[in-house]
Write a structure and sequence with these properties.
With about 150 residues, the protein is an all-alpha fold. The chain is built from four helices and no strands. Helices cover about 90% and strands about 0% of the residues. The chain is rod-shaped and about 130 Å long. Belongs to the BLOC1S5 family.
Length: about 150
Amino acid sequence: MSAEQVFKDTSAIYARLFDHRAAIHGEVNHLIKELEIKRNDRELMLLNKCHEKTRHVQIQLHPECVQYLQHQIESAAEKINDLTQNLSEMIKKDSSEEVTETRPRSESVADEFAAEWDEFMREMNEKCQKVDNEYNEKMKHLSDDFSELKT
């Protein structure tokens, strides 16, 4: 046996024992084909649907919402201006009237309105405090969750 023949045989034995790249490559390709056939590109279809929905929200719904909110803000501003003008006119009219016998009645009405207003403001403050408390609880809960995720 020549040295050349020994070297070839040794190389062949080494390749069969230690070089599995071709076999592994074939197995990986087979596995990929099997997964593609079984799943039928479901993941790709789901990603495309998600992408379409986000594009729809970005392109169509977001501008519609912004436009609707701007319209509502303008409408609310107009109503506030109208109410302010009406109140100003009422105050001018009330201040220009002479004090008559009906004045005690208007004072009692004003007292009732003041009491109602105080009650309304108290309720609004309670509701604001409740919303603030709920917000703080949710923020604490979210921060706890995120800190758990980080660790």
